[in-house]
Amino acid sequence: MKKNFIIPFDVVELEPDNVHIVASAEINGTPFNVVLDTGASHTCFDLDFIKNLNPNQAMEQNDGLNVGIGSEFESQLTTIENFKLGDFVVDGYNVVLLDMSNINSVYEKMDKPLIHCILGSDFFVRFKAVIDYKKQEMKISSK
To answer: Does the structure show a pLDDT above 50 at 69?
Structure first.
């Protein structure tokens, strides 16, 4: 049965005319922040965050193309269980793990909340996301 979920988000101003769309999430009761990034092809989690959350998390080297704006980088692949956005729960979601320390060092300097996940287009397409900037919410569907 199809069910829709509404996920609220905040528009976080990094500098004038430079914003990130940030929502709250959790894994196994541990809260964290996610950036909604329709320009990212894959959903990515911070490698250290996942290692700290679950030291026994199975990971494998990502041999696929790893390109961000301006650079190449190494990454791992894993499957995340019990990933919650509001009342929406995703189990068995394949994600990319990468080092987000550069992002978070900038966020710290700007006194912004740390980011541990970037939701990418894979997520938005799979769950038929509709982002309403005026209402500051994202609607997603369970099937």
So the answer is: no
